[in-house]
């Protein structure tokens, strides 16, 4: 078992606007961080960055082969220091096969983590789906085709799965917690969750749902009369994770000079949000290697600035044209 974490010093930096993530090892060392959707892409980068800075990472994902491989890599690359006279510590990382659309599978992930590590400090939900090839509202649909039920995978994975994980996390994060110890939930939305994206309506519905889940919960979860749990969202724009782009879209994006984010870029911002205990109820928009904290009450141009707002609008037009072609 590992000991309860020491209380953190509260930050008074309640900034919004451009965010410069600070990865503080003292904020991550010995923390137990559960990454749902951690086998690939941004999730895998998050797992590695957490382990590199002394945290324990639990990988929950449907992809067992990649998840187990990543856990082995983290164990070998960042071994846990065992005290000669102390009790044995758990491994730096473990993998648990998890289907976020199955409530029992989510419960099993948390149960397994809690038994092995005795607590959970932060939960990050990166699991996602983007079925861009199927349109619920295809203009060519006829009276025969419309009788076939469309796929609901984007809703199930992006929204229902996030709801399941957040519900369970809100309970487990309360337990085995010392006074003043920071606990948080970090959800993944995207630019489609804060800006209209006509070409992917079902995906956008799901990502808006994630945004509104955070907005709905942040006041109650962080109340001292409740459980003082922070909740925030990450809204990456265009991330090169191997699944976001078609070749046509990537070529057009490059031609327009629009920014890409790497998985490492998004992971760095995400871990920065975990480390900054002043951030609560914030959506962090990530463009390239830069990020801005935004609120629904403030105009987009005030949150991002003139150039990022124009760039975002231009990119959304490019996407609409590419998918409509």
Q: Could you explain the architecture of this structure?
A:
GO terms for molecular function: oxidoreductase activity, acting on the CH-OH group of donors, NAD or NADP as acceptor. It holds the Pfam family adh_short. Keywords: Oxidoreductase. Belongs to the short-chain dehydrogenases/reductases (SDR) family. This protein is α/β, with parallel strands linked by helices. The protein folds into two domains: 19-134 and 144-294, 3-Layer(aba) Sandwich (Rossmann fold); 300-324. The protein is built from ten helices and eleven strands. The strands form two sheets. A nine-stranded mixed beta sheet has the order 1-11-10-7-6-5-2-3-4, with helices on both faces. A two-stranded parallel ribbon has the order 8-9. Strand 8, helix 7 (247-255) and strand 9 form a beta-alpha-beta unit. The longest helix has 21 residues, at 201-221. The N and C termini lie far apart (56 Å).
Topology record:
Blueprint (H helix, E strand, L loop, with lengths): L16 E3 L5 H4 L3 E5 L4 H12 L3 E6 L2 H14 L15 E5 L5 H15 L4 E4 L27 H20 L11 E5 L12 H21 L8 E7 L2 E2 L6 H9 L5 E2 H13 L7 E5 L2 E5 L5 H5 L1 H19 L1
Parallel strand pairs: 2-3, 2-5, 3-4, 5-6, 6-7, 7-10, 8-9
Antiparallel strand pairs: 1-11, 10-11
């Amino acid at each position: 078992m590992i000991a309860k974490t020491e209380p953190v010093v509260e930050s008074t930096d309640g900034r919004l606007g451009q965010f410069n993530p600070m990865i503080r090892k003292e904020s991550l060392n010995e923390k137990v961080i559960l990454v749902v959707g951690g086998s690939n892409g941004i999730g895998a980068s998050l797992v590695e960055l957490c382990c590199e800075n002394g945290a324990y990472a639990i990988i929950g994902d449907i992809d067992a082969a990649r998840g187990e491989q990543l856990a082995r890599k983290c164990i070998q690359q960042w071994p846990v220091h065992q005290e000669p006279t102390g009790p044995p510590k758990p491994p730096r990382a473990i993998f648990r096969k998890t289907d976020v659309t199955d409530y029992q599978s989510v419960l099993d992930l948390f149960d397994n983590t809690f038994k092995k590590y005795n607590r959970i400090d932060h939960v990050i939900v990166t699991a996602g789906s983007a079925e861009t090839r199927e349109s619920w509202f295809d203009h060519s649909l006829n009276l025969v085709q419309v009788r076939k039920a469309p796929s609901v995978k984007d809703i199930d994975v992006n929204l229902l799965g996030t709801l399941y994980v957040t519900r369970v996390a809100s309970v487990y994060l309360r337990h085995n917690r010392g006074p003043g110890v920071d606990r948080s939930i970090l959800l993944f939305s995207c630019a489609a969750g804060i800006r209209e994206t006509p070409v992917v309506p079902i995906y956008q519905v799901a990502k808006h749902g994630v945004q509104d889940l955070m907005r709905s919960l942040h006041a109650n979860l962080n109340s001292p009369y409740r459980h003082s749990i922070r909740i925030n969202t990450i809204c990456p724009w265009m991330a090169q994770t191997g699944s976001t782009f078609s070749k046509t879209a990537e070529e057009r994006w490059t031609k327009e000079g629009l920014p890409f984010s790497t998985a490492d870029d998004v992971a760095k911002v995400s871990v920065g949000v975990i480390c900054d205990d002043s951030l609560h109820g914030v959506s962090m928009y990530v463009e390239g290697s830069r990020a801005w904290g935004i609120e629904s009450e403030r105009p987009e141009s005030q949150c991002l600035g003139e150039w990022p707002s124009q760039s975002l609008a231009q990119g959304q037009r490019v996407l609409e044209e590419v998918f409509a072609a």
